[in-house]
Amino acid sequence: MGHRTPRRRGARRAALLAATMTASLAVGCSAHDGPSVDDGRGKIQFPTQSPEQSPSAGGTVAPAAGPVLAVKIDNVPAARPQTGLDSADIVYAEQVEGGLSRLMAVFATKLPKSVGPVRSARVSDLELLRQFHEPTLAFSGAQHKLLPLIAKAPLRSASPDEVASAYYRGVTKSAPHNLYLHPAKLLSSAPGAAALTTGFHYGAAPAGGKPTASRTVRYPAARFTFTWSGSKHRWLVTEDGTPTVTTDGKRVAPATVVVQYVKIRKSVYHDVLGNNTPYTESVGSGKADVLRDGRTFSVDWKRQKATDGTEFTTSDATPVNFAKGQVWVVFAKA
C-alpha cells in the first residue's frame, strides 16, 4: 500500500458536515449497512513490532500550537493492556455495538512513542471532535457509509489507508487487536495545552461534594470502576473487574473523572452482525458527576453547539474546576 497524504478539511466543511449528518440521522434505523472496514485486515501489510518495544514513557513534549491528536482505542478485554493511554490528556469512553465500550484518547501536551490497539471510528466521534480545531483523527477504518462523512469533516483523517507508514502490527496480540500507531509519524510535536479547546477549567475544587471511595459506571456489556487512592491522589481505573494498566505496567489513574449523562440513541448504522451503532449526543445539556479529590460533585453540563466546548457548572452557574492531570469522561445514558 503506498503512502497517501492525509486530508485536511477547513472550517468551510463544517456546515456541510452538519447538514449531511442531520439528513442521515433523520432517516432512522436502516437494515444492515454492509460490511465494516475495520483495521485494514487483508488490505495492508504492516511491519510487526511489539508494543513493549515502543513504551509510552519518554514521548515527545512540546508547547507548540497546532491540532490535537485523537486516537480511537480498542477496549475489549482481548485488547488490554493498552499502550500509551496514560499519556493522554483526555480519555472519552463511549458505548458501541453490543453494549461494549470504546475509548478515544486525546493527546495535546505529550505524544507517546506508541498508542493502541487502534480501532474503528463511530459517527458520534465527528460531533465530539468538532470542539477542536482541525484535529487529527487516527482510526483503523469505519463502515462504508460513514467514510464519506469522515472525508467531509473538519479534521485530518489519518487511517491506515491514508498513512500506512504510521501504523504497525504488534506481536503480542491477535488481529484485530494488534494495530498500533506511531504518533510522531502524524505530528512533529505535541501541540500544547492551548489546543485543548474543551471548555474545561482547572484549579481549586468547589465547596461541598460527597466523599466517594469508588464509583462504577455500567454499560450493557462493560463496566468502569474508579477507586480513589489517597496516596496517589488519583482515581485508579478498573475495567470489567480488572485493574487497567498499560503495556509498560503503569496503572491508569486520572486526576478527574466526569460521568456525563447524555442521550444515547440508535443511529442509522449497524455492524456486520446487524447490531445497531449507538449515537452518543455530546451537544445539549444535562447532569454530570465530577469526581476529584476523593469527592463527587453533582453539576450541570451544557454544550450549545458542536464547535463549543462543554461547560460544567454548579447550580448557581459557577464553573467547576477539574484537578490538574488526566481527565476521563465517561458518557452514561441519561
The largest sheet is: 11 strands, mixed
Q: How many DSSP E strands?
A: 21
Summing up helix and strand content along with how strands pair, one would put the structural category as: mainly beta
H and E string: HEEEHEHEEEEEEEEEEEEEEEEE
Integer average pLDDT: 84
Helicity, in percent?
under 10%
Distance between the termini: 44 Å
User: What are the segments in which pLDDT stays under 50 over at least 5 consecutive residues?
Assistant: 1-64
Cα shape: globular
The amount of beta strand, in percent, is 25-35%
Question: How many distinct helices?
Answer: 3
- Rg over CA atoms, rounded to whole Å, is 19 Å
List the helices and strands and how they pair.
Layout: H1 13-26, E1 69-73, E2 90-95, E3 101-107, H2 123-129, E4 136-138, H3 147-152, E5 156-158, E6 167-169, E7 179-181, E8 201-202, E9 210-211, E10 214-219, E11 222-229, E12 234-239, E13 242-243, E14 256-262, E15 264-270, E16 276-280, E17 284-292, E18 295-303, E19 311-313, E20 321-322, E21 327-333
Parallel strand pairs: 1-4, 2-21, 4-5, 8-20, 14-21
Antiparallel strand pairs: 1-3, 2-3, 6-7, 9-18, 10-11, 11-12, 12-13, 14-17, 15-16, 17-18, 18-19
Keywords:
11-stranded mixed sheet; mainly beta; 334 residues; disordered N terminus; 3 helices; 4-stranded antiparallel sheet
